[in-house]
Amino acid sequence: MPVDNTVATTRKSQQHHRREFVVTAGVWLAAGLVAAVLVWILGDIAVRGISQIDLGFLTHDVEDAGRSGGIGPILVSTGLLLVVTLSIAIPLSLATAIELTEGVSHDRFLVHNVRRCLDVLAGVPSIVFGLFGNALFVVTLGMGYSILSGSLTLACMILPLLIRTFEQAIVAVPAEYRYAAAALGLGRTATLVRVTLPSAAPALMAGIVLSTGRALAETAALIFTAGYVARMPESLLDSGRTMSVHIFDMAMNVPGGSSRAYATACVLVVLLLVINVSVGWLLRMAGLSSRSRYGAGR
Fold it and tell me: Domain holding 156: CATH number?
């Protein structure tokens, strides 16, 4: 009997190791496939577009329907639209997330239905938001095809993602932090401002980065609201062409414009990488400064 038990234990151990090996190999294979696809896409964009990029490409005006010249006005339009979009969406999203987690969290029926509505809105195709923005901002409110119309439409589009991300970030803060703050005599508002939000900052910034990526990559909604005009905007009520719309136009509507489309795509990818790296660096610096401050206080 002891021998039989030993044999059975050995077989179970071998089966366990085989299953573990299969799972590990599957995970590495999946990760390798994803990495290979990413390298393939980025490599193709870089090979086709990087030769077109120079200082003039980044600063000059669009010429010959985009076949020559640069993307200076397009970069400015993209930057303006992104800044206005985030300036509208972030405060509204943060206020809503705080209310859902700290204000009406006891009303489960309300919170559940609000979350369900947000999840539905997050899955709505962007072209539907574009039609909505065109009907409301462009036509009804008389803003016309403008950067402001596009920004308001994009803000509506990324609100569900931002709210849900901010809400999860706040909920993920350990309850012990709140208990410790209460033990020190801090009120709910002080706890939120001085404890909860700083602790949730990395996750909050991750949500902002995700939303920034979606806003920068958006095309369909902006065609209906911000327009196609490729000149330098003088105000938020001017029409402006973003980088994603420019890529679409060069690739689909302009004969001989594919090389410029790839060059613009290179700039867009680099811009996204710079944003991600900058946010990570800022978070690390903020964490280091917080630790040094608390260490000095102790």
Answer: 1.10.3720.10
| Cα distance between residue 155 and residue 92, in whole Å | 9
Whether residue 47 is predicted with pLDDT greater than 50 in this model: the reply is yes
Whether 171 and 207 have beta carbons less than 8 Å apart is answered as no
pLDDT tens digit sequence for 127-172? 999 999 999 999 999 999 999 999 999 999 999 999 999 999 999 8
What band does 293 get if pLDDT is binned at 50, 70 and 90? very low
* 14 within some domain: no
Could you tell me the two tokens for 275? 């944003």
List C-alpha distances in Å: 226 to 5, 36, 122, 142, 157: 74, 35, 21, 13, 14
What is the number of domains present in the chain? 1
* 253 pLDDT more than 80: yes
Listed residue (90, 232, 105, 209) closest to 159, CA to CA: 90
Q: Structural domain of residue 230, as residue ranges?
A: 55-60+69-286
**Residue from 281, 258, 215 nearest 80 by CA:** 215
* Residue 292, pLDDT above cutoff 50: no
Q: How many helices (H) and strands (E) does the chain have?
A: 12, 2
200 lies in a domain?
Answer: yes
Tokens representing 246?
């420019």
Contacts of 102 (CB under 8 A, 6+ apart): 170, 188, 192, 196
The verdict on residue 156 lying in a domain is yes
Q: Where are the alpha helices (DSSP H) in 50-144?
A: 55-59, 72-98, 108-122, 126-133
Q: 142: number of CA atoms within 13 Å, CB side?
A: 0
Using left for φ > 0, alpha for ψ between -120 and 50, and beta otherwise, residue 287 falls in alpha
- How many whole angstroms separate alpha carbon 146 and alpha carbon 190? 40
